[in-house]
Amino acid sequence: MTGVIERARTLDEEYGIFNALAESDDSTGGGRLEGVAVSVKDNICVMGMETRAGSRVLEGYRPPFDATVVKKCREEGALILGKTTQDEFGFGTFSVNTPFKVPLNPHDRERSAGGSSGGAACLTSVADFPHLALAESTGGSISCPASFCGVVGLTPTYGRTSRWGLVDYANSLDKIGVMGKTVADAALLLSVISGPDEYDSTVSQAQPEDFTEYLQNDVEGLRVGVPREYFGEGVDTGVSEAVWGAIKGLESQGATVKELSLPHTGVSLASYYIIAMAEASTNLAKFSGLRYGLHLPLEGSFDDYFSRVRARGFSEEAKRRVILGTFTRMAGYRDAYYLKALRVRTRVIEDFKRAFEEVDVLAAPTMPVVAPRFDEISGMEPIQHYMMDVLTVAPNLAGIPMISFPCGRVHGMPVGLHLMADHMGEGKLIRAAHALEVRG
Amino acid sequence: MSDQWTIDRGLVERISKVARLELTQDEVEKFTGQLKVILEAFRELDDVDTEGVEPSFHPQELSNVLREDEATPWNWDPLENTEHREGRHFKGPRIQ
Questions:
Q1: Is A72 a catalytic residue?
Q2: Which of A145, A148, A277, A302 is deepest in the core (most CB within 10 A)?
Q3: Is A205 close to B65, i.e. CB distance below 8 A?
Q4: Is residue B72 included in any domain, yes or no?
Q5: Does A302 contact B22 at a Cβ distance shorter than 8 Å?
């Protein structure tokens, strides 16, 4: 598959896809992924391949081990192709928050590929060789770029896949998931990577399923709920129409559709950002310039050295989140921000649990708009960046599985349909998205 | 949340010390303004009634799984990625 690496290099020059690329084909073949190139988001460790999670603070870090999900792909015969571009540590919605390459949208290079798994989605769209992507989501980082680039992005239930070897962002939210050109692609890769792992004590003990068994083209009797808060203010009319078109498609194939309410959708955004930033600010404390990554001369005291390394190694968004996250955990503020956010999260989870007593899957737009242009993004304030995630953070707070499926175009750009199911309900998502895919 | 906390440069400088993250004066200025806007927006959580609601530290109940405490072979060198080593040790900055 040496030709694939060369081809990937060319695509990288055109679209800004890789932070590191394999030098040679060391795949063994002989498994479910024989002949398939698997790309890996930069925040997932690949043995011997520079792994920076889009951050300068990890410059030069070559993990001495493979993340469990990478190891599983190798064991199935895949070629581990390279590390895909992303926002630093996953801190972003457009993959622009990084000192390294910014991936471009394959449908219009003046637009964002989405974030934070932007490189993964871009490559999934433009690859003209057998390819699957390992990506990661904390608050929507698989669904968003999948939507903007017009590919399938599947975020599994929290705990479905091992996170051993993931450069973590927020431990109660991070999930490693998959992207592919088709639902079958995504189902195959999820089947390979899910399941218990002795190195990850937080992973579910549910045995791995063969998710390709759900590719049945059958949605007869499937109960689809449409949360009205997901079609409110700020959602582009064209996006709403495309998504409703897909929902009607499911109905015409035998699904039943009903509208319902998830009342805490709006406040999920503040709850998510407080929790994510609080957890990120503690996770980032380990980057101290001693054991790996960026090193500076050992001058000054302990605190001076750490403060300097981190000032040099983090870019602006990471600094902002460390400051905000530290603030919300500080004595005197913790109850009002951090604990309050965790209580609101309980409310958000209750909304979903109530909904799933009535329906099998929820259907909504993945993102409120199509991929924005870079000149629009550069004029946005941080709070406006955060608000773009308003439709993806709630299911991520609840840890439920979700799939973004391309369901049409508006202004020439892809639109994503977001399907969500209860915990461990990936099969239902695959079943519904596959029926739409077959229908075409 | 009450208005007793003022978000100002002094607070941001204090946080940066706690977080061990050196900020330039420009960054302090910029983050102070942004913090005000962002925290003000986050206050919409005040409108949610959470009386008697337990905080969710995790999205669902997962119990930690532990393996037997048995030594297994370790085939990589923890020192291979550091530039600050002395013999078989990491070398750190001075502790004051």
A1: no
A2: A145
A3: yes
A4: no
A5: no
Q: Is B5 on the interface with A (CB under 8 A)?
A: yes
Tell me, yes or no, if B29 comes closer than 8 A to chain A by beta carbon.
Answer: no
| B72 pLDDT more than 90 | no
- A281: which chain B residues are within 8 Å (Cβ-Cβ)? 19
Is residue B28, in this structure, part of any structural domain at all?
Answer: yes
A55 catalytic? Reply is no
Give chain B positions within 8 Å (CB) of A388.
Answer: none
> CB distance B50–A346 less than 8 Å?
yes
CB within 8 Å: A270 and B45: yes
Give the fold, CATH level 3, of A2-225+244-258+359-439: Amidase signature (AS) enzymes (3.90.1300)
Q: What is the ipTM of this complex?
A: 0.93
Instruction: Give the pLDDT band of residue B11 (cuts 50, 70, 90).
Output: very high
Does residue B31 sit within a domain? yes
Q: Do B59 and A60 touch (CB under 8 A)?
A: no
pLDDT at B4 over 70: no
pLDDT tens digit sequence for A358-416 = 999 999 999 999 999 999 999 999 999 999 999 999 999 999 999 999 999 999 999 99
Catalytic choice (A116, A204, A281, A404): A116
Asked whether residue B2 is domain-assigned, the answer is: no
Is residue A288 flagged as an active site residue? Answer: no
Residues from chain A contacting residue B61 (CB–CB below 8 Å): none
- Total domains in chain B come to 1
Q: How many angstroms away from the CA of B84 is the closest CA of chain A?
A: 6
Tens digit of each residue's pLDDT (9 = 90 or more) over A166-179: 999 999 999 999 99
Instruction: Identify all chain B residues contacting A52, using CB atoms and an 8 Å cutoff.
Output: none
Q: Closest approach of chain B CAs to the CA of A437, in angstroms?
A: 30
Q: Closest residue of B to A264, CA-based? A: B48
Q: Return the pLDDT at B17.
A: 95
CB pairs under 8 A between A and B: 179
